[in-house]
Amino acid sequence: MKAYYLDNEQQVSTTDLDRIGVLNWKLNPEDYEEDLKKIEQERNYGHRSIVNLSESTLPNFNEMMKKFFEEHLHEFEEIRFILDGEGYFDVREKDDKWIRIELVKGDLIVLPAGMYHRFTLTDTKYAKAMRLFVNTQKEPIWTPVNRGENSDSLECRKEYLKTQSVN
Ligand code: KMT
Ligand code: NI
């Protein structure tokens, strides 16, 4: 998984990503069941669903892409496993620098709750991804909270910043 600062393209290592709470694994996209089950058990993930992001498979493609690219956070982890195609997650460090993370087939990424981020496709405009969700909720809550007046006062944001204050 390649990552770099958007402003100067300086590389960001997976250890650095770990430090800001972004977890990642590389699984075999053709044979992942055993490894994925292990991660699900360890991290208490339940729900699985597949999204196919392309102009021909998503009726409201442009609208969805616009939405994904607005800076937002969630109250729960965002867990995505890229089964095919590719995409970028941009995540904000606590000092608000953008880090771009390039995801390709086989990449499994976890963004912590309360971290600001956005998603976009690459020039190929295609990604097929599995969405996973923590088992603490009956139903997955995908709702984004766009960055704005209220997002900074959310409990999940405060909790995330606490994890970053020791670095
Ligand atoms: C999101 O919430 O930003 C997404 O689901 C992105 C598309 S899945 C790789
Ligand atoms: Ni999101």
TrEMBL record:
Ni(2+) binds at residues 72, 74, 78, 117. This is Acireductone dioxygenase. Binds either 1 Fe or Ni cation per monomer. Iron-binding promotes an acireductone dioxygenase reaction producing 2-keto-4-methylthiobutyrate, while nickel-binding promotes an acireductone dioxygenase reaction producing 3-(methylsulfanyl)propanoate. Its main location: cytoplasm. Pathway: Amino-acid biosynthesis; L-methionine biosynthesis via salvage pathway; L-methionine from S-methyl-5-thio-alpha-D-ribose 1-phosphate: step 5/6. Pfam families: ARD (PF03079). Belongs to the acireductone dioxygenase (ARD) family. Transmembrane segments: none annotated. It catalyses: 1,2-dihydroxy-5-(methylsulfanyl)pent-1-en-3-one + O2 = 3-(methylsulfanyl)propanoate + CO + formate + 2 H(+); 1,2-dihydroxy-5-(methylsulfanyl)pent-1-en-3-one + O2 = 4-methylsulfanyl-2-oxobutanoate + formate + 2 H(+). The keyword Transmembrane helix does not apply. Catalyzes 2 different reactions between oxygen and the acireductone 1,2-dihydroxy-3-keto-5-methylthiopentene (DHK-MTPene) depending upon the metal bound in the active site. Fe-containing acireductone dioxygenase (Fe-ARD) produces formate and 2-keto-4-methylthiobutyrate (KMTB), the alpha-ketoacid precursor of methionine in the methionine recycle pathway. Ni-containing acireductone dioxygenase (Ni-ARD) produces methylthiopropionate, carbon monoxide and formate, and does not lie on the methionine recycle pathway. Fe(2+) binds at residues 72, 74, 78, 117. It comes from the Eukaryota. The lineage of its organism: Eukaryota, Discoba, Heterolobosea, Tetramitia, Eutetramitia. Its EC number is 1.13.11.54, 1.13.11.53. GO terms for cellular component: cytoplasm; nucleus. Keywords: Amino-acid biosynthesis, Cytoplasm, Dioxygenase, Iron, Metal-binding, Methionine biosynthesis, Nickel, Nucleus, Oxidoreductase. It comes from Acrasis kona. CDD domains: cupin_ARD. It is an enzyme of class 1 (oxidoreductase). GO terms for molecular function: acireductone dioxygenase (Ni2+-requiring) activity; acireductone dioxygenase [iron(II)-requiring] activity; iron ion binding; nickel cation binding. It is found in: Cytoplasm; Nucleus. GO terms for biological process: L-methionine salvage from methylthioadenosine. Its cofactor is Fe(2+); Ni(2+).
